[in-house]
Design a protein that fits this description.
With 1114 residues, this protein is mainly beta. The chain contains nine helices and 65 strands. The termini are far apart. 9% of the residues lie in helices and 36% in strands. The N terminus is likely disordered. Helix 2 packs across helix 3. The chain folds into six domains: 208 residues, Jelly Rolls, CATH 2.60.120; 208 residues, Sandwich (Jelly Rolls); 93 residues, OB fold (Dihydrolipoamide Acetyltransferase, E2P); 127 residues, OB fold (Dihydrolipoamide Acetyltransferase, E2P) (Beta Barrel); 329 residues, Deoxyribonuclease I, Chain A, CATH 3.60.10; 86 residues, no CATH class.
């Protein structure tokens, strides 16, 4: 905020009015509104107790003696000097703004400044205002002070008699609330000349709102009378020992700069700094330093240029010997559309001590500001620069701050970095005064520093906290905690805090320390910085907070404290048995980063419903609020790759960074989950159908774009040759070693048929017995990811059909028709070829729209409708297939991007399955939601053990996105389903690891699913459809004596009947189990009730032929 209460003068005040009832160098005062209002309660003029015939009652505070019941007033009983009062200027005599004018003789004076004591009381309206403007020698009117009203705020006013009144909508000047106690506000005035004209303009509507002014003072120079040192004040300096700036005249472009300038003295000044709009260049659109400001200033423009890209600095050294309680003030201004990377910072040190921050800029990237140049033109620009929460404008304003410490030499350093020639910053009037200095450092307990809110109640303050115990060391600081006996035992306030040192700390665990430092919320993490630390002794560590299945609470409606996790920030934490819910994350600065954890077991799973706080009337998922993070190496322990599904025990502290709470361990023991964890091998007589999302598998060839069904261009992504080879190697290894090379593998997120064929070749390199054929039809996805199939040798493919490529839906947000299936379903119709027949099967693979933005206020309706209509479209196709062939063996599999239960918005799996409740789906408020599938499909994932039921991990919550839905004709032959582990649970960065040990790990972000189908129940080579004897054993137990001539039995383990041929007559009859419907001689005898001779010597030709004719195997 601007400097308030410091009267800006150098040698003496040069002009004034209403100061102790006197004026000086006041050449004229005019006010046409003196005694102009008919009501004694209204006024806009000078008044004086005991002199004026009447004074509006709202201006006077008579509560001490005259009228103890008074409830409104500013000018106290004892204030008998002249003042200016304003009450209710909008009345029966006037409807607009009113004005009064003062003219002062300021001949010969430079560096002018204005100070006025101001007060206000009332519940103001946004239309209420006053403004003090000035001009010199008839020049343009410039604003010195302008009021605002805080319509969201309130203020408590205390009258002289002691009564207090809280009123809404207080009035402010320089972001400071005006109260019923007069306070001085000051502002530098631009320019010099002979006559200074001050104009007060105001408009107020209401008799219970009052404003008062007194002590109008014009001073020469912006230097307070007690200034000890200064620079760039009227182009002069005092006690400036040294000024160093290596960047003076260092930039090749005249438009760039970081140095001192002065109009009509400097060879050139960056155009963005100078406001030449009044007369020099009326079309000017940017500037800060006005034409009349002929004094030295410091300007900054575009420091990131062809000469440097790093921050630049300049340093001032001042002699402050023998001074204490130092305060610094600087006039600052800025104009431009700034970036978040643009900044300046003023730091200081005394006698070579640590650098402390005096002023630091920030950028409001969500805001804008209207700048008015001296010529009158206004420009509204985004992203203004702020200082102390106040926007820096193109009018210089004074900002002040106390400085800590004392000594001989005060070094001020200005560091800045700005990228752009249309952004400017200027400084003037650097002033060091000997004032009160910082207030006494308060001594607080840690729980008082932390408070019970989301941030510290003393943020930005310098405080001391005494006799606390060092619990944990970090590479750049340490944690302290209140001893048990001094804890407030309030679960809502943390007893721990981090002390930032910036280097390895000089303390040990168990030390008892005193710490004095500034409380800072470092991106939401409470810490003490710039700290002075002293060690008093040692003590036992305070008790750690036990985290477990109940703490932190898994129920957002019943948290363990007022703000879950925040109440434990900085404290010692002990987790006896926790679970890892998500693997190591990956960031550019930390490739093996935090894992998601819960403090108990088991790991966290997604549950039905809309995430808390949900939608009334629909299922609600609590959001797993118990999930947080663990950073293994944050405090210096060795880093670890930790798979999800692992368990651990740990002791550490609770930290906070990047928007999330984390356990930073000082000790950590991990029982790592085994990876990879492959699916079981298929048994004899089983076939397997799998699905795997290949996670954006693109090759190293930049293919020409093509066009989707809706006319959009589809263009591929291109990876390096090295990355492509690594991805193929990892995926092929994973498919063979983890998924056991399913007979049919449905895949998603693959670029093209060529890439599929490359993958098939890579799989054959891993295992030469696995030879896949690839199938893919290009879809509509603008990023060119598609769905497809890999089929092994024993699969005969009869047809591959793309479904619904040209289907559209109506976007409920825009009303436009848009493509429905970006990745249209693909249907494979074929059969598994057994030795003695074929097992027909149909597989439909899907990859539906993601969950992203499903809960967005703007995008949510579109996302929900698209997901719903995709599910309806697929359900209709499933039903048509079932109606065409009620016995069809159909499996619908792939990445549904939906759970095995409703998410509360759209049950994307249940709709296709034919098993869902419309009342539990928000989308059904605007759709009919019929049951489209009869009979229902079976979701084979439901047969997987609950703790193994997941294929993907999102923010630490395990969930199923990849499903396999089977028709009635197939479900009865399914013998199980399993997820192959090695992707979702593996550290994210392992996708970039092509080493042999980690080759099958993190080949994708999804785990693959394999479904087992018993297509040959007795493994005799005859498919179940054709098998009349499902319990066949080969070899069989007959003949009991010997195989007779032209007698037949299965004696040697294959499906061809053995026999003894007659001598000399060539080959006799031949039979296989395919001919006999999968029946052995022993089974034929039993079914026909034949004599024992067949058991002794085998079945006769006649009996074999009769049996074959009877069963009529097709």
């Amino acid at each position: 905020m601007g400097l308030a209460g410091a009267q800006l003068v150098q040698a003496a005040d040069i002009a004034w009015d209403m100061v102790d009832g006197t004026s000086q160098n006041l050449t004229s005062y005019s006010n046409p509104w003196t005694d102009a209002f008919g009501s004694a309660g209204d006024g806009f003029q000078k008044y004086q107790r005991g002199v004026s015939p009447s004074i509006p009652f709202a201006v006077l505070d008579d509560s001490l003696v005259i009228f103890p019941a008074d409830s409104l007033g500013i000018v106290k009983d004892g204030n008998v000097n002249e003042f200016f009062g304003i009450v209710d200027t909008e009345n029966g005599d006037n409807a607009g703004a009113v004005s009064a004018t003062w003219e002062f003789d300021v001949s010969g004076a430079t560096g002018l400044a204005l100070s006025i004591e101001m007060g206000a009381m009332g519940d103001f309206e946004s239309s209420d205002f006053f403004e003090w403007t000035y001009s010199i020698d008839g020049g343009p009117d410039l604003v010195a002070f302008a009021s605002t009203v805080d319509e969201e705020g309130a203020n408590t006013y205390v009258l002289e008699g002691g009564a207090s009144f809280t009123l809404s909508d207080p009035m402010l000047v320089q972001d400071t609330i005006l109260t019923d106690d007069l306070a001085a506000f000051s502002a530098p005035l631009t320019g010099s000349g002979s006559v200074l004209t001050l104009t007060l303009t105001a408009q107020f509507n209401g008799g219970t709102e009052a404003v008062v002014f007194q002590d109008i003072v014009i001073s020469e120079s912006g230097v307070p009378p007690d200034a000890s040192a200064f620079d760039m004040v009227g182009s002069e300096s005092q006690n400036l020992v040294a000024y160093t700036n290596p960047w003076t005249d260092a930039f090749g472009s005249a438009g760039d700069g970081f140095q001192k300038y002065r109009r009509n003295v400097s060879a050139s000044i960056p155009f963005a700094v100078a406001d030449d709009s009044l007369s020099i260049f009326p079309a000017d659109s940017q500037g800060i330093i006005k034409e009349v400001n002929q004094d030295e200033f410091f300007g900054i423009v575009d420091t990131v240029n062809g000469d440097t890209s790093d921050p630049v600095s300049a340093t001032w050294d001042f002699d402050v010997s023998g001074l204490g309680g130092l305060e610094l003030s600087i006039d600052m201004g800025a104009m431009g559309d700034f970036e978040s990377s643009d900044f300046f910072e003023w730091t200081y040190s005394i006698d070579g001590g640590p650098d402390l921050v005096a002023f630091a800029s920030s950028v409001d990237e969500n805001g804008s500001f209207t700048y008015t140049l001296e010529g009158g033109a206004s420009f509204t620009l985004s992203d203004p620069m702020l200082m102390q929460g106040t926007i820096l404008s193109n009018d210089l304003a004074t900002f002040s701050t106390p400085l800590t410490g004392s000594g001989s030499t005060l070094s001020l350093t200005l560091t800045a970095q700005f990228n752009g020639g249309s952004e400017a910053v200027a400084f003037q009037n650097i002033v060091i005064t000997e004032g009160d200095g910082p207030p006494p450092t308060p001594e607080l307990e840690i729980y008082e520093i932390q408070g019970d809110g989301p941030s510290s109640p003393v943020e930005g303050s310098i405080v001391s906290t005494m006799d606390n115990v060092v619990t944990t060391l970090a590479p750049d600081g340490f944690f302290i905690q209140t001893p048990n006996e001094r804890s407030d035992n309030d679960v809502n306030t943390s007893d721990g805090v981090f002390v930032f040192t910036g280097a390895p700390p000089g303390v040990a665990v168990g030390d008892v320390v005193d710490v004095t430092g500034e409380v800072d919320e470092f991106f939401g993490f409470t810490e003490m910085k710039n700290a002075e630390v002293s060690v008093d002794g040692s003590a036992a560590l305070p008790d750690a907070v036990a985290f477990n299945g109940a703490t932190p609470s898994p129920d957002p409606l019943a948290p363990s404290c007022l703000i879950e996790f925040e109440c434990y920030e900085g404290m010692l934490i002990d987790i006896a048995e926790g679970a890892v819910s998500g693997p190591n994350q990956r960031f550019s600065s930390d490739l093996v980063a935090e894992v998601y954890i819960v403090a108990g077991t088991p790991r966290a799973f997604r549950e039905p419903g809309i995430e808390y706080p949900g939608e009334f009337g629909y299922p609600e998922w609590d959001g797993n609020p118990e999930v947080f993070e663990l950073d293994p190496d944050k405090l210096g322990l060795p880093n670890q790759v930790i798979p999800a599904g692992s368990t651990f025990s740990a002791v550490g502290v609770l930290g906070f960074e990047f928007g999330g709470y984390e356990l930073w361990p000082s000790s950590l023991t991990v029982q790592a989950a085994p990876l990879p964890d492959p699916v079981r091998e298929s048994l004899e007589g089983e076939m397997t159908v799998g699905t795997l999302n290949l996670f954006r598998l693109f090759d190293d060839v930049d293919d020409a774009p093509d066009i989707a069904a809706d006319g959009r261009e589809r263009d591929d992504f291109v990876v390096s040759t090295t990355e492509y080879a690594r991805r193929l190697a990892k995926l092929s290894e994973h498919i063979v070693r983890v998924l056991d090379a399913p007979d049919i593998l449905a895949v998603q997120e693959v670029e093209s048929l060529t890439v599929m064929e490359d993958l098939a070749i890579a799989i054959g390199v891993v295992d030469s017995e696995v030879q896949y054929s690839a199938y893919l039809v290009e879809g509509n996805d603008v990023g060119t990811i598609d769905v497809g199939f890999l089929t092994r040798q024993r699969i005969q493919v009869d047809a591959i059909t793309q479904l619904g490529k040209d289907e559209f839906y109506t976007n409920p947000v825009t009303g436009e028709e848009e493509i429905l299936h970006d990745r249209p379903p693909l249907l494979l119709e074929g059969s598994y070829q057994l030795e003695f027949g074929a097992f027909p099967i149909s597989v439909m693979t899907v990859h539906n729209r993601s969950l992203g933005s499903i809960d967005s206020p703007s995008e949510g309706p579109r996302v929900r409708q698209k997901r719903y209509q995709q599910a309806v479209s697929i359900a209709q196709k499933v039903q048509a297939t079932q109606e065409a062939d009620p016995d069809v063996r159909l499996i619908v599999t792939g990445d549904f991007n939906a759970f095995e239960f409703t998410d509360g918005y759209v049950d994307g799996v249940g709709i296709i399955q034919g098993l869902y409740n419309p009342a539990e789906n928000l989308v059904c408020e605007t759709n009919d939601c019929p049951d489209l599938v009869q009979p229902d499909l079976t979701n084979e994932v439901q047969g997987v053990a609950a703790l193994d039921r997941y294929s993907f991990i999102f923010r630490g919550s395990a969930q199923v996105l990849d499903h396999a839905l089977t028709s009635t004709g197939l479900a009865e032959e399914v013998t199980g389903a399993e997820f192959g582990r090695g992707n979702a649970d593996a550290a994210i960065d392992l996708i970039n690891d092509g080493s042999a040990a980690n080759l099958p790990l993190r080949s994708s972000d999804h785990d693959g699913l394999v479904v087992y189908v018993l297509n040959d129940e007795d493994a005799d080579g005859v498919p179940n459809d054709n098998d009349a004897c499902p319990g066949t054993s080969i070899p069989e137990s007959i003949p009991s004596t010997a195989l007779g001539i032209n007698r037949f039995a299965l004696t040697d383990g294959d499906g061809v009947f053995d026999t003894a041929l007659p001598e000399g007559e060539g080959p006799g009859a031949q039979f296989t189990v395919g001919d006999t419907g999968g029946c052995s001689c022993e089974q034929i005898v039993a079914e026909q009730g034949l004599g024992k001779g067949h058991l002794k010597f085998g079945c006769s030709i006649g009996e074999m032929e009769e049996w074959i004719e009877m069963i009529a195997v097709p």
